[in-house]
Design a protein that fits this description.
- Among the domains are: 170 residues, inorganic pyrophosphatase (n-terminal core), CATH 3.90.1640; 107 residues, Diaminopimelate Epimerase, Chain A, domain 1.
- The longest helix has 26 residues.
- It is an alpha/beta fold.
- The chain contains 18 helices and 13 strands.
- Strands 8-9-10-11-13-12 form a 6-stranded mixed β-sheet. A 5-stranded parallel β-sheet has the order 2-1-3-4-5, sandwiched between helices.
- Helix content is 46%, strand content 14%.
Length: 461
């Protein structure tokens, strides 16, 4: 039987969980349904999973899941007459997987009720969550790096899933402040195997400097992002030709532009960790692609409702790259529109949180996260509501700094959603919920009260 990188974690639970999952996978060579979350981390997780299955010679069907929807998972399980592999989701539905008559493997990094003590599960269900090893799933191992690690455990040939492990971690913002924990160990090994290269550069993408600045969402520059005329003025003041390609700058010019952007970020009140992230290491993949570009492309396919294209990209579909690039343009335009709407219209403040409504259901979480990083009061988490259909989708975002002060959005959302007849969960730093259409005000009351108990009120700072 192939062996994996057991030396990466010394905690015994790690090996036993992965061994159980591996045994289930190798004992059932039939068709597997892969269920994954539709965001960048979930798509990257599914990418490693299906590449692993294809190498094993297994048939598979990859199915995305949007939001926290118990009814949807029930429907998928009842319609699946075979084994299931669930990545970047599922921790909240262990009771449902226990009822499935076929093998189920769950690879997730989200908090679950009762963590870190999982419920008793039948032998045909393997649940792997780094929380159970004492690993922080919000900063040290995301679902994509977990799935990458599992694929290596199946067969070390899967080290070449590095692009999807790394892009998933970037999508989940686990690179901010530098990779840590198991993420850092995996990255170090990938660099040593020449699968990834650390490089220096600015996170600006476009055919010329003006376009790159106008399209920039991370960082988002108040008064510049989304405004080509202002971008030209900004660059001309630095004696830089707006029409020049970003990669044509010499080190002195790159430094001058970088320093001006950093000053702008500080001026607009951006927290230090996001200012520092602008000058962090970049990661070039073996095909020359920047890992953040891959993360954006895969995340974009999910956010515009075409996550299957992101998975097809990892499988080498000759047309998927062009479709992913088109998706990325649509996604970036939608994010910019939402961030400009927040910049110009603001948000509504409550004692312990701030909130806004977004018409962009699949983009609201990204808009909330980037607005939290670059536009909003850093002392309170932000909540975004998207209406449409029989329920309201809720996306919440905080920062590592707020988590360090006691924020736990996963608990606050799970409890608040439960009170109003919905369900929620996720991470302490980022969480989601689905609630009835008439429950927004009540949910805000419940979430605000809970978050207010978790962290000091802004007025008390």
């Amino acid at each position: 039987m192939p062996s994996g990188p057991e030396h990466f974690v010394t905690q015994p639970t790690y090996t036993s969980e992965f061994t159980r999952a591996r045994a289930l996978l190798l004992a059932h060579p039939g068709r597997w349904r892969v269920i994954y979350h539709y965001d960048g981390d979930g798509i990257a997780s599914a990418s490693s999973a299906v590449r692993m299955l294809r190498r094993l010679g297994y048939a598979f069907q990859a199915t995305p899941l949007v939001g926290v929807e118990r009814g949807r998972i029930d429907s998928l399980l009842s319609g699946t007459h075979g084994p299931v592999l669930v990545v970047d989701t599922g921790a909240s539905w262990l009771d449902r997987f226990a009822e499935h008559p076929h093998p189920v493997i769950v690879l997730d990094h989200h908090q679950y009720p009762g963590a870190p003590q999982p419920p008793e599960l039948p032998d045909r269900v393997a649940f792997v969550d780094p929380i159970d090893w004492g690993v922080d799933g919000t900063s040290e191992l995301c679902a994509a790096t977990l799935t990458w690690l599992f694929s290596i455990f199946i067969d070390p040939v899967n080290w070449d899933n590095a692009p999807w492990g790394l892009s998933g971690a970037i999508s989940d913002r686990q690179h901010v402040g530098g990779f840590r924990g198991l993420n850092a160990k995996l990255l170090e090994e990938a660099v040593g195997r020449s699968l990834v290269e650390k490089v220096r550069g600015l996170p600006l993408y476009g055919s010329n400097l003006s376009e790159a600045l106008a399209r920039s969402i991370d960082p988002y520059l108040r008064g510049i992002s989304g405004k080509p005329v202002e971008c030209d003025r900004f660059l001309e003041a630095l004696k830089l030709d707006p029409r020049r390609p970003p990669n044509s700058l010499d080190s002195s010019e790159r430094s001058r532009l970088g320093s001006a952007i950093l000053a702008r970020l500080v001026q607009q009140g951006t927290r230090p960790e996001f200012v520092e992230a602008f000058h962090a290491d970049r990661y070039r993949l073996a095909d020359g692609t920047d890992a953040e570009e891959l993360a954006n492309r895969q995340n974009a396919t999910g956010r515009i409702g075409e996550p299957g294209e992101g998975v097809a990209l990892a499988l080498g579909d000759s047309k998927a790259l062009a479709r992913a690039r088109e998706a990325e343009e649509t996604w970036r335009t939608g994010i910019l529109t939402g961030l400009r709407r927040i910049e110009e219209g603001g948000v509504t403040e409550r004692p312990a949180l701030q909130w806004f409504e977004s018409p962009d259901t699949t983009l609201a979480g990204t808009q909330a996260g980037l607005a939290m990083n670059y536009l909003l009061d850093p002392n309170r988490p932000v909540v975004a509501f998207s209406r449409g259909g029989p329920s309201v989708k809720v996306s919440g975002r905080g920062t590592a700094w707020l988590v360090g002060r006691g924020l736990d959005l996963a608990t606050a959302f799970r409890e608040a959603a439960g009170v109003v007849g919905g369900e929620g969960g996720g991470h302490r730093i980022a969480s989601g919920a689905t609630i009835p259409t008439d429950a927004v005000d009540r949910f805000l009351d419940e979430a605000d009260e809970r978050i207010g108990h978790q962290i000091p009120r802004p007025g008390g700072l």
